[in-house]
Amino acid sequence: MPQESEERKKEFRTTVGGSLVKRVYTPEDADPRDGSLPAEHPFTRNIMPAGYRTRLWTMRQYAGFATVEETNERYKFLYKQGQTGFSVAFDLPTQEGYDSDHPLAAGEVGKCGVAIDSLQDMEQLWEGIPLARVSTSMTINATAPMVLAMYIAAAEKQGCAKADLAGTVQNDILKEYIARNTYIFAPAPSMRLLTDLCRYCAQEMPNWNSISISGYHMREAGATAAQEVGFTLANGIAYVEAMIDGGLKVDDFAPRFSFFFAAYTNVLEEAAKFRAARRLWAKIMKDRFGAKNPRSQMLRFHVQTDGFTLTAQQPLNNISRVTLQALAGVLGGCQSLHTNSFDEALALPTEQAVQVALRTQQIIAFESGLADTVDPLGGSYFVESLTNEIEKRASGYIEEIDSIGGALEAIEKGYFQKEILESSYNYQLAVESGEQVVVGVNKFESGDASIPETLEVGAEIEEKQKRRLERLRGSRDNASVTTALEKVREAAQNGKNLMPVLIDATKQYATIGEMSDALRSVFGQYRERGFV
Amino acid sequence: MTDKRIRVLIAKPGLDGHDRGAKVVARGLRDAGMEVVYLGLRLTPEEIAEAAVQEDVDVIGLSCLSGAHMALFPKTVQLVRAEGLNDVLIVGGGIIPQRDIPKLKEAGLAAVFGPGAPIEEIIQFIRSRVKDRTS
Topology of A27-371+382-433 in CATH? Predict the structure, then answer.
């Protein structure tokens, strides 16, 4: 009889704080199985009957830097290459409601995205690209209503009606307080802005995703896979409740809700996570909210490979990590995918690094065969078991958040923030003890410190943008701007939907800082209590 | 006095919201027995310098992942020194390209800890440098 061989570790886990992994899985581990086929409730296997056989996922690379001139050039290049899905990265002043000449914007202009101060910038961003023929995803939250207003106005100038626009605004403010931190106002007035936008889209923009409920940033901040699903869906529940409280019926808005998750390197856990999220959301929408339209129950999601796992050490290794992570997204049935570039632990990506990242997706799509059958992992004892376990643990988090009084209350109490800090600290300790191996960082460290060339956005970009803004302030009709901003303040006070007045202000070339200030004068500003 | 607990201020200048690193380091230094004041994010260099005076800290840890470090770190150092805090050790971390590190050191940062730097290394560095000054 062969001797029982000693295993490498006392216990195996998917990731730090993740699921325990057994030596082998058998049919009993996979129970209960829901037995559904793709496109059948609860959509565990896929929301579409034929998955990628009908249409591949959208390869949507998040990009934006410097001023609209540089970014427009990049977009036009991509458009000529056949790309029709854009994903706009805005710089931090744009995201947090400051004009480029605000003291707090110093050093940040055009750094982690493109600087947009006014409609003039938005018009130029899309110069030469027909907005009627592309779809655009915009990573914008606190200032989502202002930026969407600019997008609508820019499209109208091109002759494209807002009803014909296709795209997404992230507009997921709750996770900003938990992880991403680009909030402006306190949670309650922010929810008002968010629901104003969703309601406006439900009525006026049938092809627009009014929200992208995001787990990505919470995962990046340290959440485990199960926390990512539980916390994201808990925020989703808060949004659905807020819309219903506002008098809308669930099937009137829920079909335009979309999601955004991270993909880590543990391929099977991540693929199972996507399956679990799909199943759990379908059940919540049907059982908790009584959604009848299957589209309200379908969790459609974007995936981005995980930035945190990329290493500054031996950066080329990141290409392998991104490949595994992208694989997880595809095996999990994502609708769109962004692959990170290998140099992102060092700086914004260079053109060459972006190209490798895009090619990685193309290799998976056209060479790996993974896109040829729906949910190829379905029926794997291990993956079904992981799917059940993540669903169970995520449900547990949702119950806990419900018992606190919902996502807003849980944010105020610091529940999410403390849970995530705990998980991220445990991860760090596991890396430092060597229990969690990071190749090139705490194992297989080579003396070779080959640092690839990185992109630099120079200080002259900020000066250029400030001069543009100064010229705008000198050339627009400032009396009309003042009147329009007064109407924004009034609407903020009297509870009218803010979208129409913001669109009007935008058309007068009111800036993002001015519109944000008008709202600040009514809503005040939020300051976090640092939970450490 | 060598048994005095080392006081550390952790702060994020600028608009960057990535606070995982800053919080994990804050937690690690606290577990190592240091007193940590976590000042949070979206701060101006002026606010950080003022807090350093009020909190009477030995060390300031700055974190920035948005690429604005060259505009914010040197200015913070300058303002802290202008407050007369010549002995306070100032270190930084974040997404910092290699080419910027010598410039940051020239501007007065004692060290730059990039992604993957173990907390243990940060602790050792602080202990060696702060002890040097007090002994």
Answer: TIM Barrel (3.20.20)
